[in-house]
Amino acid sequence: MKRGVVLVTGGAGFIGSHTVDRLLEKGYRVRVLDNLHPRVHPRGKPLWLSPEAEFLHGDVTRRPDWERALEGVEAVVHLAAYQDYMPDFSTFFHVNTEGTALLYEVAVERRLDIRKVVVASSQAVYGEGCHRCEEHGVVYPEMRPLAQLQRGDWAVRCPHCGRPVAWEPTDESVVHPQNAYAMSKYAQEMIALNLGKRYGIPTTALRYSIVQGPRQSFANAYSGVCRIFCTSLYLGRPLMVYEDGQQVRDYVNIRDAVEATLLALEDPRTDNQVFNVGGGRPYTVLEFAHTVLRVAGKEGRIEVPGIFRFGDTRHICSDITRLRSLGWSPRYTPEDSVREYLAWLSSQECRADLLDSAQAHMQAVGVLRRVEVRA
Questions:
Q1: Please, where are the H alpha helices in 51-115?
Q2: Domain 5-370 in CATH 3.50.50.60
Q3: Pick from 31, 113, 200, 312: most CB atoms within 10 A?
Q4: Are 10 and 253 contacting, i.e. CB atoms less than 8 angstroms apart?
Q5: Residue 152 forms beta bridges with which residues?
């Protein structure tokens, strides 16, 4: 495979550009397809994108761009995606789902000899994930109702008896997507794995947890707790925590995520399967906020104003046993991610109104809401 070309879609972005760098280090020839969306790349093609990679400015939703990008390619790392909290539901499916279908459509129609496809999926496909009820055992709860959240009642409840349940690490066996992004990513998985198997194109889907590190665009201030907290600190703003800050997450450093991606690309044991790529340790959001302040060595204020993001998962932590069994394991910590991101952020020009405009937009479209009556 090293004699051929690896196509990286979304290769100018956060995970994509680091993947490009690692592929080049390992001796691959690399082609990048990226639409340079202004929310992620407000200044166009980023300086960090290696000149050693061939760059194509194009979009995964356009068939001619796929035809051009796939010519002479032996493998594809498909990272291009639409990820947001905005209620423009059709865009998630147009980019994430239809764009993936076009990859396989072009490959099959043109009888392309593609030896491997790695598709970036997401931990989001689990929704609230795995929990345990004292009476009913393992359960997969529904999304918390708006009326409950408006009371400031953050608990995840058993779908059978309504009692609060305790979270458990979530493995790959059960998916329960509960928002447009998650549904589009699971549909993407089904397209990739089933068409890949049917037409002899070995495919692996990776369900990344929250990936963190340098190059995660601060221009997109709608999601990504590392960039939001670090940008807040950089701009002298308080670190705003949604709900009560006790939400559980797992965070994976970009270098670990890239190594998992390369393993999926190179190891045939991953063919036609799905794997979690996570950090291996749970953190509460408040714990992560304090981590940012500690690593930065700065005084800062953490605010918990009773605001929630409608549709957010309460607790999710990925079980990474399956990928560990192939020899991969996370080596870096959230402290490493914060340190690396702060160092990168200090070299960037960051608009002072960035966070305010993002928050105002999310409030205007009903994504951010405030507790009305405390439980």
A1: 63-70, 89-92, 99-109
A2: no
A3: 31
A4: no
A5: none
